[in-house]
Give the backbone structure.
Amino acid sequence: MEHKLYYKDPYITSFWTEVIDTGKDNSGRDFAVLKETAFYPTGGGQPFDTGIIDGVQVIEIEEVDGEIRHYLERPVEKKKVHGQVDWERRFDHMQQHSGQHILSAAFEDLFDMETVGFHLGKEFVTIDLDTPELEEKVAQEAEKVANKIVAENRPIIVKWVDAEEAREYPLRKELSVEENIRLVMIPDFDYGGCGGTHPKSTGETGPIKILGWERQRKKIRLEFVCGQRVLKQLQAKQTIIRELSGILNAPEGKLPEAAEKLVQNGKSLDKEVGEAREALIRMEAEKLVTDEPANFYCKAFEGRSLQELQKLAKFAISFNQKAVFLLVSNDGERLQVVCGRGENAEGNMKDTLTNALSLIEGKGGGNEAFAQGSGKMLISPEELLRCLKTSLEA
């Protein structure tokens, strides 16, 4: 472990070392292996560090068969090199990882909810709790205790032990290794094996805030943030609140009420618009049968939906029970078809539609009196109407 400087001191960000090997992986990426390194590789749920080695950008760190590979934008030229870890990224990971330990311990101590999964993402951190349900008051209590541990600024102790010595501690989980055991401990609160980087005290974790949760395969996946990420979340939400206050012309405390009023007004307006559209379609149908008295109507339209054609046909039939109505529209993507007849008219609308749909690879349904469907734009609406008429007269 001597070459892993991030274990000696996670606060080391600048170091000099020697390149002991270089190469390319199977995908052609350049990498370098260093005599010692402060760059943390992906592992234990914690993402890799980034930074610079001798002016070359480090894009990923991975441990392969005990060898820590530093993947680079281009090969390094020198034997002796200087490494610089991106401290902002490293410290963020330290905060999130220690926050996970604290929050998981709080859930287990208070409610016997064990953490069975952990993911440290770019924006959020998640843990999977071994429980099918989670109540709001339970989450709030766990968050409260976690932040109490942070405020107490307890030390976070890292210790290398063997299997026998590890058994002396009240470990939260069974260890996955038998040697080179690394314990991360918060006295009188949390003890466990961990290979990640952590701050020196719980206070450096910063505030812990639960953002939400959802059920995932009989488990609860809980999303939270710690430290600087809490401030970023607060800033983002404050920006949204200010914008909403301006849009809704309401102070922050009245936003839910203003939003609910807007939604209700929108629903009322949608209803009025729907009623107005239906009235216009009814007037259109009445005008159609009044201006053009007949027992057979074939009409092609542009931009009409199937629902509009259905309403138009039904209203028209109500005004003329002796007539047959064949309506086709090109809505910009597909051909929509409606075939309907009144009680005193003849013809099988379902059969007529089925024959026509075969020409446009369409699907539809209905009965002898009324049928509807749609298909691909393989022919024009006028051509489809002619086919419908021919089929009906056959």
